[in-house]
Each structure stands twice: as C-alpha cells, then as structure tokens.
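Fold these two proteins, one after the other.
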Amino acid sequence: TRCDMQESKNIPERWYSTKEMCEYLGVSRDTLLTWINEKNMPASKVGRSWKFKPSEVDEWVKSGEAADN
C-alpha cells in the first residue's frame, strides 16, 4: 500500500563499519584510515570504532577530495 511505501522512505540510513566501508570502496583499512586522517573523509568515532554514512562518503568521493594530489 501507499502507506507502507512512505514508511520505508523514512527509515534512516544505517551506519557502515570500517570493514563494510573498505568493501564498499574497495580499499584497505590502512587506506581508509589515511583518508580519515589526511583527506577529511567523513567518519564518526563511536567508542574505539569508526562508523560511516555511505551517502556522506559518496558525496566526499564525488567532490574530488579522495583524489591523489
């Protein structure tokens, strides 16, 4: 029904773990950590773990900040 479709649109985007983000981008954990520390990759520290919103990372990649300069 229409109501069900609207409810599914309101589901918040889930956070990805470091392992999931490495698989998503096809990079190593070391590369991911370098990008966080040196290239302002969007990430949030939760306890001792990094968490990522795929939509924010996609925008960061599209912005060109992930490019080697």
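Now the second one:
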Amino acid sequence: CGIPRLQRQLALCYSHMAAVRTQNKTISPQQALERLETLCAKAERCSWELQRKLILWKIETEDAAEIMDSLHRRRFVDDARFARAFARDKSRFQGWGRRKIENELRLRRIPAPAIAEAISEVDQQDYTDKAAAVLARKAAGMERPLSYADRTKLMRFMLTRGYEASLAAELLRQLQ
C-alpha cells in the first residue's frame, strides 16, 4: 500500500512550503538568535542543524558566526552533548544499532571524537537486550525452525538497523 509513501511526500511538501514562507520574510540577526535559543531550549540540537537554519533565513555570514559563537559560549548548543543524547535515545527508544547511530551523527557533521565517546557510552547489556528484543519482535510471525530465507531476511533487517554482523549472527543462533 502506498500510504507511508504518500505521508512522506506530504511531509516533504509541507516542509518545502514552510521553507518558502520563511524565505519571503526578512529575519534580523537578533530574531534569528532568539528563535535558535528557543529551539535549543526545547531539545538538543547540533551546530550543523542550526547553521542550516541560518542559511535558510539568509543571515549574513558574519552575523551567523556571531550567533553560533554566542550559542556555544552560553552552552545552548554542544555537539558532544547532542551526540550523547542522540546515541542514548536512538539506541533505547528506536532500537538503532551503533553503526546506524554513528552514520547519522556523521551526517550531522559531529566531530569523530564526540561520536566515539557517545557510542562508547551506550550500555553494552542494554544494547544487547534491545537488539535481542528487536530481533524477536521481527521473527515473531515466522515459523520455527527458521528457513534459510527467513534467517537471511532477519540478518539483513538487523544490519539495516545498524547492528554489528557478529552480534546479529549470535542472536540469530540463540533464536533458533
């Protein structure tokens, strides 16, 4: 069914419309700073996301640098703190593996040392338990013993969720 695809297309359309509305308005550097402070107060943000917003709002380069410096100085934004929160939340609530979390943080242009620190802070036992729960939930409707095609499907699923191949293989052996 094409409903999820339609929902994604609508979301893209709405985000584009919002971007067009914002482009037509002139935003002063002070207004941009206040908006970014509000965003950062509501949830953790990374520098890259905020810089994208400044570009969208057509803030001059010098003003954007001053705004970002102010946000960093007053600790509204901290990429290492963002990386730790992102890794913890994605692992715990969305069931993402370390590889997927690492790739997403790279896409957000988080420095490599901050990524490594965030990944290392994910508790190993919770991580393994979550991986086992994700695998068990996916395999719940499959007949036992698992066929080769089902094991392959489950392995591919775990790899796309960002789990290491060795962990996925071990959990699959335990599932049999």
